[in-house]
Design brief:
There is one protein chain. By secondary structure, the chain is α/β, with parallel strands linked by helices. It has a single domain, classed as Rossmann fold, CATH 3.40.50. Helix content is 35%, strand content 20%. It is built from 7 helices and 12 strands. A 6-stranded mixed sheet has the order 7-8-9-4-10-11. A two-stranded antiparallel sheet has the order 1-2. Strands 3-12 form a two-stranded parallel ribbon.
Length: 222
C-alpha cells in the first residue's frame, strides 16, 4: 500500500500476510504513522492495496466494485472510529437507525432502539449528540456499528478521545458485545490493557507486522 507525496512514492503497508479467524479478537498496536489505520481501512474496503488479496468473510474485496464494497460494509462490517462521526442534527435513535434506513431495511427504528438498549442508552434515544457526553456518543456510535448484526467489528482507537474511566467503560462494552455476539473484533489501540484483553496482539512497525522482540515477522496467522 503506498501513496505519492512531493513526487515520491511512500510505502505505508509492506508485505502484510495476516489471517484473522472468525470470532477472534485482535489488537493492532504500534507507533503513530506505522500503518495501523491504513490496514483497518483496507480490511473495511475503504482503501485498495496495490496488489495481493483481501478476503473478508470469504469475499475477495479486490474483486468487488464500489457498490459491492458498500453492500459488504452494510451487511457484514461494523466500524467504530475515535471521533464518533454522529450526525449532529439527528437524535441518538435516528443516528443508529440511519444505515438501516439508507439500506431500506425493515423495522429500522425498532432495531435501533434494541441496539441502544444493548449499549445502555435506551433512555437517551431522543437526545442529540450535543446533549450526550463523549462516552455516551461513543456508545451511540457502537450501537450504530452493531445494529445490522455485522460479522466483523473494526474499531480505530475507540477510547482514544475519552478519559480513562469512560474509556475503560467503553472498552468493557466492546468486549462484552464481542463475547455475546461472537463477532470478530479488530481493534487499533494505544491502551496496553485493552490490547491485552484480545486473543492476539499484532505490532506494526514501518508498515510491517513485527514480533514482540521487534524482529520482522511479516506474517501472522490464527
Amino acid at each position: 500500500m503506498h501513496y505519492e507525496a512531493a513526487g515520491a512514492r511512500v510505502e505505508v503497508l509492506r508485505g502484510i500476510d495476516l489471517d484473522i479467524g472468525a470470532g477472534e479478537s485482535v489488537a493492532i498496536v504500534g507507533p503513530s504513522g506505522c500503518g495501523k489505520t491504513t490496514l483497518l481501512l483496507v480490511l473495511a474496503g475503504l482503501e485498495r492495496p496495490a496488489g495481493g488479496s483481501v478476503r473478508v468473510d470469504g469475499l475477495d474485496l479486490l474483486r468487488l466494485d464500489p457498490d459491492g464494497l458498500a453492500d459488504l460494509r452494510r451487511d457484514r462490517i461494523g466500524i467504530v472510529f475515535q471521533s464518533f462521526h454522529l450526525m449532529p442534527t439527528l437524535p441518538a435513535l435516528d443516528n443508529v437507525a440511519l444505515p438501516l434506513e439508507i439500506a431500506g431495511a425493515p423495522g429500522a427504528r425498532d432495531r435501533a432502539r434494541e441496539a441502544l438498549d444493548r449499549v445502555g442508552l435506551g433512555g437517551r434515544a431522543g437526545h442529540y449528540p450535543s446533549q450526550l457526553s463523549g462516552g455516551e456518543q461513543q456508545r451511540v456510535a457502537i450501537a450504530r456499528a452493531l445494529v445490522h448484526g455485522p460479522r466483523v467489528m473494526l474499531a480505530d482507537e475507540p477510547t482514544g478521545s475519552l478519559d480513562e474511566r469512560t474509556g475503560a467503560a467503553v472498552g468493557e462494552l466492546l468486549f462484552d458485545l464481542h463475547g455475546r455476539s461472537g463477532t470478530t473484533l479488530v481493534l487499533i489501540t494505544h491502551d496496553s490493557e485493552l490490547a491485552a484483553r484480545c486473543d492476539r496482539v499484532l505490532r506494526l512497525h514501518e508498515g510491517r507486522i513485527v514480533d514482540s522482540a521487534g524482529h520482522t515477522d511479516g506474517a501472522a496467522h490464527s
